[in-house]
Design brief:
The complex is a heterotrimer of chains A (146), B (543) and C (98). Chain A is 28% helix and 16% strand. In chain B, the strands form four sheets. Chain B has a five-stranded antiparallel sheet. In chain B, strands 3-14-15-12-11 form a five-stranded antiparallel sheet. Chain B is globular, with a radius of gyration of 23 Å. Chain C is α+β, with helices and mostly antiparallel strands and 98 residues long. In chain C, 18% of the residues lie in helices and 30% in strands. The mean pLDDT of chain C is 96. Classes of the chains: A alpha/beta (146), B alpha+beta (543), C alpha+beta (98). The complex binds protoporphyrin IX containing FE and iron/sulfur cluster (SF4).
Chain lengths: 146, 543, 98
């Protein structure tokens, strides 16, 4: 069972994450935690000094964190993007597609189930921020660079 | 019709595999019901009053004969021999065993069908006009767009845990046959300077706060529709209310922000989204469009119809509408027989319609939001044969858009959220107004019944709407007048205190009597109501 | 009295707690007194039932009668399809739910 999952090269960031409010008011922190309802765009001016963004999912049904993640990746954030909280195996694929590359779930995940989930769908319909080529790009390779 | 390629096929098969795994985890206790519920809902599996209920998607209401036959087979093999066609142009089975659900999904995948996102707080089945592609009043067939959006919305990584369900509708005609403006987002295809694009409407819906959607953009070009919708959805996902599920639909967000502010936020997001390469190339829409290119219609067919059989002639006048190709007609099949259950069809009826589609309708059929079926391409010369076969199967009712063509949700006979039974009321009304000449005299009159405020039966959009309420444990019915789901969309007004089941049938009769007394030349019920207002109707009902 | 109902996990059938197990007949339902919630949790954990809940009921000449119309319809079946109810041969069975 995995209590922490990372899809990044190298060490996971260790610094404790501060709140968005603390981060935007304090110049030396390198890790921040976004709660549902907080605006990920507030972080955009300081992406280059961030090593870790944690996005909290207090309940898996609250999908705001998916938008937060994509917004950060779309803006070019390269650091660690970690989903924490009520993160279940059934949401991992969508989270990976929105740019999350590490996970600290409240309840440990079964490694085999994670592996199955991540390999189950060979193809995806949308372009997102995970670099996967959507089926429309595969259908028209001459028209798209994917 | 659209056909899956290997990509589409492998995605629905992966889904079956995933759901089989989830059901297995549930049956062995690895998943609790709380954890399993959202997963089963995303596969259309509910727990209803008497059993599990499975809702199967019929994307934009279009089916082949083979697909329809499979629906009949599932009804027979896994259910109790029937299915229920819904206002969302899906089909529901009421008696499903949990352990069978993965097998059913596998059977569906075999005919390029699925139950993906037929429930849950995600983008639902895309709906469209039942006459799409065959009616003369369209600027283009809206179904290629609907298919493009079906694919885009399937397993969308960002929009699978929205504040609430999300329903999109695409039409392409002035006449709105699909209640487009009562959807979370409605697209109406229009032509501008020779290019096709979409007018976009946002924030419509029924439920406890019915709203007709305002327009938020007058043109989105076809090669930007995906990024524009991503923008609409992102604003909603981030800012839609999550504190109260009755205020979580996009209509509330649009209302609370104001249309202008919602539009502004969408435009800002769109300016960003359109730079991200999210739109499929135009070749993709062209590829899909090629699947819907008109079937090969025969030419030189006669437009003559032999009307010597009066029962047939009556049916033709009511159920058959003009097709864009000469010699062809669109046939509406009523699922509202006298005293019957609106939208229900037996396995045998489903299979018969499948066979008729194969033999007489270029292997295609449609499901309508009014819970009826359509054979879209019937040669006029074949109408009599089709009618005879329908008649033998109890499917030749001639009541399209008449007072007995009632929309009714399952209500308290099947639904665990209901306050009152909708179906018995529909049955009583259909008996009371059974006489053909009386129905014809009343003309177009849309009666819609919901068993609770969720409004699955579209009662807000009924010329006459009925809502079931619970009065101290007793079924009670509220009457409303003046709603419309068409291009003149409006929300009905409640007449006053509620009624018993028989009471509401009597009240509706008084309403129709008053209409007949007051109407002017050429006026439908709705027109008379709009002209004279609620007051005289109130007086007629409550005296 | 209080009775306990739910659906069979596997088949989805409506079931009633009959004292030593679950029955499809509401007539078999027994008074669970104050033990309803505890029983519900145990039976749910044992994967024998899904979505269990406790309801009020009375005993009449015709047997156990749930207090709310919704549970009476659950006990009988859809009133619009008498053939699919638990009393397919009783044309008036639907009246019982009202
Ligand atoms: C039997 C199980 C069903 C359940 C539990 C159910 C539940 C609901 C709920 C909770 C809503 C309100 C959602 C909201 O406003 O946020 C709703 C809306 C709706 N449902 Fe159902 N429903 C069921 C069956 C049906 C059927 C059979 C139909 C079609 C005949 C249908 C069509 C609709 C429609 C058209 C709406 C209104 C959508 C809107 O507000 O825009 N549902 N349903
Ligand atoms: S309107 Fe209410 S009673 Fe009717 S199906 Fe929807 S939720 Fe059930």
């Amino acid at each position: 069972m995995a209590e922490f999952l990372s899809f990044r090269e190298g060490e996971a960031a260790q610094e404790p994450a501060v709140t968005v409010e603390a981060f935007t008011g304090q110049s030396n922190a390198t890790a921040v935690r976004i709660e549902p309802g907080e605006d990920a765009r507030e972080l955009l001016p300081c992406l280059d000094r961030l090593a870790l963004v944690e996005v909290n999912f207090p309940g898996f049904g609250d999908g705001r964190g998916y938008s937060a993640a994509r917004i950060l990746r779309e803006a070019g954030y390269q650091g660690e993007l970690r989903a924490v909280g009520d993160v279940l195996v059934d949401q991992i694929v969508a989270m990976r597609r929105c740019g999350f590359d590490s996970f600290r779930p409240d309840k440990p995940l079964d490694d085999a189930a994670v592996e199955r989930a991540l390999t189950r769908y060979a193809d995806v319909y949308q372009k997102s921020v995970d670099g996967r080529s959507p089926v429309w790009a595969k259908r028209h390779p001459e028209k798209t660079d994917g | 019709m659209y056909r899956y390629d290997n990509y589409d096929q492998s995605i629905v098969e992966a889904r079956v595999d995933e759901f089989r795994d989830q059901v297995q985890r549930r049956l062995t206790g690895a998943l609790t019901e709380d954890q399993f519920k959202p997963l089963r809902l995303m596969n259309g599996l509910y727990l209803q009053l008497h059993a599990y209920m499975l809702r199967v998607a019929i994307p934009y209401g279009t089916l082949s004969g083979r697909q329809m036959r499979k629906l009949g087979e599932i009804a027979r093999k896994y259910d109790k021999g029937y299915g229920h066609f819904t206002t969302r142009t899906n089909i529901q089975y009421n008696w499903i065993k949990l352990a069978d659900a993965p097998d059913i999904l596998a059977e569906l995948a075999g005919v390029e069908m699925h139950a993906i996102q037929t429930s849950g707080n995600c983008i639902r089945n895309i709906s469209s006009d039942q006459y799409a592609g065959v009616s003369a009043d369209e600027v283009a067939d809206p179904r290629p767009w609907a298919e493009l959006l079906r694919q885009w919305s399937s397993f969308h990584p960002e929009f699978t845990y929205l504040p609430r369900k999300f329903k999109i509708c695409v039409i392409a005609a002035e006449e709105d046959r699909a209640a487009m403006r009562l959807h979370d987002i409605g697209l109406k295809l229009v032509e501008r300077d020779g290019a096709i694009g979409a007018e976009v409407y946002a924030g419509g819906g029924m439920g406890r706060t019915p709203m007709v959607s305002p327009q938020i953009r007058d043109f989105v070009p076809e090669d930007e529709i995906v990024s524009y919708l991503e923008a609409c959805l992102r604003v909603y996902n981030r800012h839609g209310r999550r504190d109260n599920k009755y205020k979580a639909r996009i209509k509330i967000l649009v209302h609370e922000l104001g249309v202008e502010e919602y539009k502004r936020q969408v435009e800002e997001e769109f300016a960003h989204m359109r730079t991200l390469g999210l739109n499929p190339p135009t070749e993709e829409l062209d590829r899909i469009r090629a699947h819907f290119a008109g079937p090969d219609y025969e030419t030189g067919l006669s437009d003559a119809i032999d009307r010597s059989d009066p029962a047939f002639a009556l049916w033709v006048d009511r159920q058959v509408v003009a097709h864009r190709a000469p010699g062809y007609a669109i046939v509406n099949i009523s699922l509202k027989p006298r005293g019957g259950i609106p939208g229900d069809a037996s396995a045998e009826q489903i299979e018969l319609v499948a066979a008729l589609a194969e033999q007489y309708s270029l292997d295609e059929l449609r499901v309508t939001h009014a819970q009826n079926l359509v054979l879209p391409h019937v040669r006029k010369a074949d109408l009599y044969a089709v009618w005879q076969k329908l008649d033998e199967a109890g499917l030749a009712e001639a009541n399209l858009d008449l007072i007995t063509d009632i929309i009714a949700c399952p209500g308290l006979d099947y639904c665990s959220l209901a306050n009152a039974r909708s179906i018995p009321l529909a049955q009583k009304l259909s008996e009371r107004f059974a006489a053909q000449d009386r129905q014809a005299e009343l003309g177009e009159l849309k009666v819609k019944i919901s068993g609770c405020i969720n409004a699955c039966g579209h009662h807000h959009a009924g010329h006459i709407g009925v809502l079931g309420v619970d009065r101290k444990g007793v079924e009670n019915f509220q009457l409303s007048l003046g709603g419309s789901g068409a291009e003149d969309a409006s929300v009905g007004q409640i007449t006053g205190p509620g009624f018993s089941e028989d009471g509401v049938v009597d009240a509706i009769e008084k309403v129709t009597d008053l209409y007949l007394a007051e109407r002017q030349e050429g006026e439908r019920f709705l027109d008379t109501y709009r002209r004279i207002g609620m007051k005289p109707f109130k007086e007629a009902i409550y005296g | 009295m209080k009775i306990l109902t739910g659906n069979d996990l596997v088949t989805g059938d409506v079931v009633w707690w009959a004292g030593d197990g679950w029955s499809r007949l509401v007539g078999d339902a027994v008074d669970v007194g104050e033990r309803g919630d505890e029983l519900a949790r145990a039976e749910e954990a044992a994967l024998r039932v899904v979505a269990p809940y406790v309801i009020d009921a009375t005993v009449t000449d015709e047997g156990v009668r749930p207090a709310h119309i919704k549970d009476r319809i659950r006990a009988l079946g859809p009133t619009v399809r008498p053939d699919l109810t638990l009393k397919p041969n009783d044309a008036d069975a639907g009246n019982w739910v009202i």
